[in-house]
Write a structure and sequence with these properties.
The chain is of the alpha/beta class. Helix content is about 45%, strand content about 15%. It has helices spanning about 1-15, 30-35, 40-50, 60-70, 95-100, 115-120, 130-135, 150-160, 170-175, 180-190, 200-205, 215-225, 235-245, 265-275, 290-305, and strands spanning about 20-25, 35-40, 55-60, 75, 105-110, 125, 145, 165, 195, 210, 230, 250. Helix 1 (about 1-15) runs parallel beside helix 14 (about 265-275), helix 3 runs parallel beside helix 4 (about 60-70) and helix 12 runs parallel beside helix 13 (about 235-245). The structure holds iron/sulfur cluster. Iron/sulfur cluster binds near residues 87 and 262.
Length: about 300
């Protein structure tokens, strides 16, 4: 059954000259058929370079919006329209525009895990991989509002030892990783290196050997001489980690961090969006041109730091 769906997807992909992008957190069956698999930064960059007429984005809505903003001439399809991000939804374009209006002296830095409407209101974007690099050159006398993720913001502020303000948003998956759970898993697995995502609280990050993006974790574990790791991020990453590191011991965090939005997508959804008529495709991400132009600027400023 799976084989038949995969063959059909391959055939339709060829017919439509489509590419499939997938985030490291989506189901393994989607990771296996992706042309590009990565984290937010990698996928943002690839989306801007590909120039494919059709992009199928296996991820959540803000990611597909970013792909559309960077590839406005491509048709970007999101296989499950309700796959969103609770953290991204914790900041709205209206609320950020109001903050901007009432706080004109602030530099607004938005994590790419934000909606297009929010990106359109800010000065620069960042990812979990480059957030420190993006914030560091902002003059120290400038006030900064970091949004929507207060945890990533607090981790950046701590690393750079600078005052910042934070939007009260957070990723429910990473925020749920507690100090007590970390202490328990470290005790059960002594000597293993503990990696976490910087969307976790600073208290959890303080207990980690390293805090890094999913792309950073993949690279670090691949290149490390160490043999055993506890992986403190969404469980979808385990699939690729195990393929790339067959001889290493890799333990997912417990309780298993699982993003239900990332897990909404399956092979049948990808097939359905490629089977739908490309004209007025119901899975297409449609954004206002003017909004896209405004949202593109802070992303491009970020990409200049690459
Ligand atoms: S893992 Fe967190 S930040 Fe990523 S899509 Fe899910 S809720 Fe949003």
């Amino acid at each position: 059954m799976c084989e038949a769906i995969i063959n059909k997807i391959k055939q339709l992909k060829k017919e439509h000259n489509a590419v499939i992008l997938a985030h490291n957190y989506v189901a393994s069956e989607l990771q296996d058929i992706a042309d590009v698999l990565g984290d937010s930064l990698q996928l943002s960059i690839e989306a801007s370079k590909l120039g494919a007429p059709v992009i199928v984005f296996c991820g959540v809505s803000f990611m597909a919006e970013t792909a559309k903003i960077l590839s406005p001439n491509s048709k970007v399809l999101l296989p499950v329209k309700t796959a969103g991000c609770p953290m991204a939804d914790m900041a709205t374009g209206e609320a950020v525009a109001e903050f901007r209006r009432t706080h004109p002296d602030y530099v607004l830095v938005a994590y790419v895990n934000s909606t297009a409407a929010v990106k359109a209101e800010v000065d620069i974007c960042c990812t979990s991989a480059n957030a420190e690099k993006i914030v560091a050159p902002i003059p120290r006398d400038k006030k900064i509002m970091f949004l929507p993720d207060r945890n990533l913001g607090r981790n950046v502020a701590k690393a750079l030892n600078r005052e910042m303000e934070f939007w009260p948003g957070y990723c429910p998956i990473h925020n749920a990783i507690t100090v007590a759970d970390v202490e328990a898993i470290k005790q059960e697995n002594p000597g293993m290196e503990f990696l976490v995502h910087p969307e976790c609280t600073p208290e959890v990050v303080a207990l980690a050997d390293k805090a890094m993006s999913t792309g950073g974790m993949l690279k670090y574990i691949r290149e490390s001489d160490k043999q055993a790791f506890i992986v403190g991020t969404e469980c979808g990453i385990m699939h690729r980690l195990r393929i790339e590191n067959p001889t290493k011991t890799l333990i997912p965090f417990k309780p298993t961090p699982t993003c239900t939005d990332m897990k909404k997508l399956g092979l049948a959804d990808v097939l359905a969006c490629l089977e739908a008529p490309m004209e007025n495709n119901p899975y297409e991400v449609v954004l206002d041109e003017e909004l896209m132009d405004r949202a593109r600027k802070p992303i491009e400023r970020m990409l200049q730091f690459k």
